[in-house]
Prior knowledge:
The protein is an alpha+beta fold.
Amino acid sequence: MDVFGTMQDAFGQGVSAVKGAVSGVAVENLPFMRGFIRLCSDGWQEGWHERNGGNLSYRMTHAEVDSCKSFFYDVPSSWVKMSVQAKNLAGAYFAVTGAGRYMRNVQLDPSFNVGIVEINAAGDSWRLVWGLKDGGMPTSEFASHFLIHSVRLASADPTHRILYHAHPDNVIALSKIIPLDARIITRALWKAHTECIMVFPKGIGVVPCMVPGSMELARATSELMKTYDAVIWAQHGLFASGPDFDSTFGLMQTVEKAAKIHGLAIAMNGGSSEFANTITDDDLRAIARSLNLKVNEAFLS
Ligand code: 13P
Ligand code: ZN
């Protein structure tokens, strides 16, 4: 595999698969896939997906798997072993964007840019059952997605089926100027505008600059996603989870917008973050009280 994920023989085995006869509503037109495709297009429109930047995965329901089965390859790819294992994802199916494939192209050709992979009974291997035509394979960040799906499924939010990674400009810029501390970053973002604490009351996690696609990044992020719904990858982007496409995209957009407002305010203020007016901790508590939010108290003063 080259650095941008063109499938060669990265796992020492071919993942070519053979298409069979089909019936029913095409996978591309099923509601979950329409939501998946729309999110990819929306993220591209926002400017968060230069080249092949960013990736998306969705843990399918049993009913969705059933409605896709007639479109699955008669002969799926061979099993591809991962360096991670999650027993609670045994037998799961994921829709996932391809390594090196472009978000801007997903809408034009979903079955080239997106695939459906099945996880084996041991929870340590995947095989391609639909899409990712012409030798594609899941995103190079699939280890992160996989471990985080496992964490999410085992958590208080097992409804979080969607994991989304993007490269939003202002979040990346923020990670250059602020201490890489979850409390400091969360407080800056909560105070950027009043909606933020409503959208991410648990706060935002952060990992330092790490090699994209690495196991180190996957493990560090999955650990933080036990606590947070979104984690900043310093100098790289943001990883977000949610129960549906709207709220996951909305979380990404809200964090990015808050980072932008924070940066704008610093620029308007001559480079200082000592603002004349801001949202106080009492304001944050009042918002939390009025909406009965379960706020991360450790991040309030
Ligand atoms: P993929 O093309 O493998 O999804 O990689 C894009 C990316 O953003 C890596 O962090
Ligand atoms: Zn990335």
